[in-house]
Amino acid sequence: MRGKRFGTGAALAVGALAVTGLAFAPTAVAVTPDTATITADCGTFGSGEATLTATQDGTSATITVTSAITAPIALAEDSITSTLTLVNASGGTATFSGTENPALAAGDAVTVGPLNGTVASGDSLEAYGGSLQIVVLGITVTCTATGPQSPGPFVFD
Q1: Which of 14, 24, 61, 63 is deepest in the core (most CB within 10 A)?
Q2: DSSP per-residue codes, 67-88
Q3: What would you report as the CA-atom Rg of the chain, rounded to the nearest whole angstrom?
Q4: What is the largest CA-CA distance in the chain?
Q5: How far is CA 16 from CA 9, 24, 53, 94, in A?
């Protein structure tokens, strides 16, 4: 009987330590703001408002862009190659890239992402001065922001 009590007591102690460890575990890092808008100029392919949505997990980050341009024809899922370049306030640029997009019907707003990139704690990334380049069916479209993003740059923890 004594062995059972010791085993139960040890299990409870280990469980209590595990719960305490969870209480003191570091919280997930986050980017702020998580959504920003820009006015984008995509040349002959159109212009208008675009939304950028960012997420962060440590040094890995993703950005999804719902652009100001519309698909002229239906496009298959994952048929667009995209590269988003953002300007870092401390100098240099950060690049996010990928080939993910939902299936798009003709006339749908072009959405690309999540585009993957690497960030450092404290990075402050802005679309103004950078670009979004998408390649679809062999045609390259380059979009640039006509002013700073709102409400401000993405700041990564």
Answers
A1: 63
A2: EEEE-SS-B-TT--EEEEEEEE
A3: 22
A4: 83
A5: 11, 13, 39, 43
Residue 29: predicted pLDDT = 58
Distance CA 121, CA 19 (A): 28
CA distance 56 to 116: 10
Domain coordinates in residue numbering, the chain: 31-156
**Regions of the chain where pLDDT drops below 70:** 1-29
- Write down the pLDDT at residue 134: 96
pLDDT at 68: 74
In the chain, which ranges are continuous DSSP H helix? 2-23
pLDDT value of position 14: 34
CATH number of 31-156: 2.60.40
Tokens read off for 44: 């002959």
Closest CA to 109 of 59, 142, 69: 69
CA–CA distance from 118 to each of 31, 71, 96, 135 (Å)? Answer: 13, 29, 8, 22
Return the pLDDT at 69: 85
